[in-house]
Design brief:
The protein has 1 helix and 30 strands. With 429 residues, the protein is mostly beta strands. The protein has one domain: Neuraminidase (6 Propeller).
């Protein structure tokens, strides 16, 4: 069985403050003007807002998929950029990186300009070259970090790995293959005699030029695998058949876990999240959670809803997906073997002023922590009313809700903070 009892004393309750890095803003689709930024907000352990400050000064048309590196010195995110003068909007969603500015008020402070994470995308587009319409662009999203260090008697190598999803496109706007995963690694090798060698590599991981229907997303590095094993979500037939899969980064082999699981990812529910580190550095077992629906349930339909949507008045609540928080333990020693699958709690549906029968929780991820490394991680999810809830993953009991400060348009009008998935990351300080 999965040992999750200690998760009740979650990481946030043991910390003095909580920091949220998130995308907020608004895009007017009539005037085609965007005002999205990456923002940092600090909260007390009881959820009281302590301070806010901008991280970027982009005024992008859209932003999301915010991630901070383990050292908390760098932030990466996806953005659809917009020129501040001409208001021309980039047709593609690209990954950006920038140093994380110091916390505190930044009014009047010139923020560092973000740069492209992938200034050269040749390795992402060259595989789908066709005789008359080669791929020239690639949308990029769902980044996730991993950092590992390897030492021998002769040298030490530090590697930062960023896995992400992408979709390559032709000039005509046609997909050049499947939506795939890729990896960017940045390695620094230091020898005992003081020499330093650095290298950056970008390579596709799951690309298939002959398949435009499969959609890979949500890469999550397995704890303790040193960036070599990834759990991710694979949607077949344009998302109509969601599955959980494992990728061996070294060999490129993809193994579907669905044959051993009773649940598949629910619609608009989010990605898998590893909630516990390995029990020891030598352990080959890891546990992740995801919001899933039972594949054998005959009442499962396609009515799972997300924020901002509404159900047809004639639809029956009884016909909606029955959704649960599910925990899965896998053994990564040789090939990914499902050791245990456990339902943690049923996911309720709630009504809000904007939607009905919406999942009470979506887009869950682990709460990140600075050193010393915690023995467990808490789980944080976006709620139906656009708050962030820290909860006990075993029971679903919420300890505290963080009310995100609403951004304001230039004329002072308050707007909802980002509605995009995984537009936030929470750190316990």
């Amino acid at each position: 069985m999965i040992a999750l009892a200690s998760l009740a004393t979650a990481a946030l309750a043991q910390q003095r403050t909580v920091t949220v890095y998130y995308a907020d803003g608004f895009a007017n689709h009539q005037t085609m003007v965007g005002n999205y930024e990456i923002t940092r907000a600090s909260f007390s352990e009881d959820g009281e807002l302590l301070s806010t400050s901008n991280v970027t000064d982009m005024a992008a048309f859209m932003m999301g998929y915010v991630r901070v590196n383990p050292a908390r010195t760098q932030v990466i995110f996806s953005a659809q950029a917009q020129d501040k003068t001409t208001r021309r909007i980039s047709p593609h969603v690209l990954l950006y990186e920038m140093p994380l500015p110091a916390a505190g008020p930044n009014i009047g402070v010139s923020l560092v300009k973000p740069t492209l994470l992938l200034p050269d995308i040749t390795n992402l587009t060259s595989g789908c070259v066709k005789p008359y319409s080669p791929c020239t662009q690639a949308d990029q999203f769902h980044p996730t970090f991993d950092y590992h260090r390897r030492s021998t008697q002769y040298e030490t190598t530090e590697t930062e790995a960023i896995a992400f999803g992408y979709r390559a496109w032709t000039d005509e706007g046609f997909p050049g293959g499947n939506q795939a995963l890729a990896l960017r690694t940045r390695s620094v090798r230091k020898t005992k005699d003081g020499k330093v060698f650095s290298d950056i590599e970008v390579k596709p991981l799951t690309f298939n030029a002959s398949d435009i229907h499969t959609m890979d997303s949500c890469p999550r590095f397995a704890p303790g695998s040193n960036g070599k094993q990834i759990i991710f979500q694979r949607n077949l037939l344009e998302g109509s058949k969601p599955t959980i899969a494992h990728l061996d980064v070294t060999t490129g082999k993809v193994t579907s876990l669905q044959g051993a699981l009773s649940f598949v990812p629910a619609d608009f529910a989010g990605c898998p999240a590893f909630v516990m580190p390995p029990p020891s550095p030598l352990s080959k077992k890891a546990t992740f959670v995801f919001i899933g629906k039972n594949t054998s349930d005959s009442s499962v339909s396609t009515f799972a809803k997300h924020w901002g949507s509404s159900r047809n008045t004639g639809a029956s609540v009884e016909g909606l997906d029955k959704v649960y928080m599910v925990a899965v333990t896998i053994d990564l020693s040789d090939k990914p073997i499902v050791v245990d699958e456990k339902v943690l709690f049923a996911m309720p549906r709630v009504n809000t002023s904007a939607a009905v029968d919406m999942l009470a929780l979506q887009y869950c991820s682990q709460v990140m922590q600075d050193k010393p490394a915690p023995t467990v991680n808490a789980l944080v999810c976006k709620t139906a009313d656009m708050k962030l809830a820290e909860l006990n993953p075993e029971t679903g009991v919420q300890r505290v809700n963080l009310t995100m400060p609403y951004p304001r348009l230039p004329d002072g009008t308050p707007v909802m903070w980002s509605q995009t998935s995984y537009s936030f990351q929470v750190w316990a300080d």
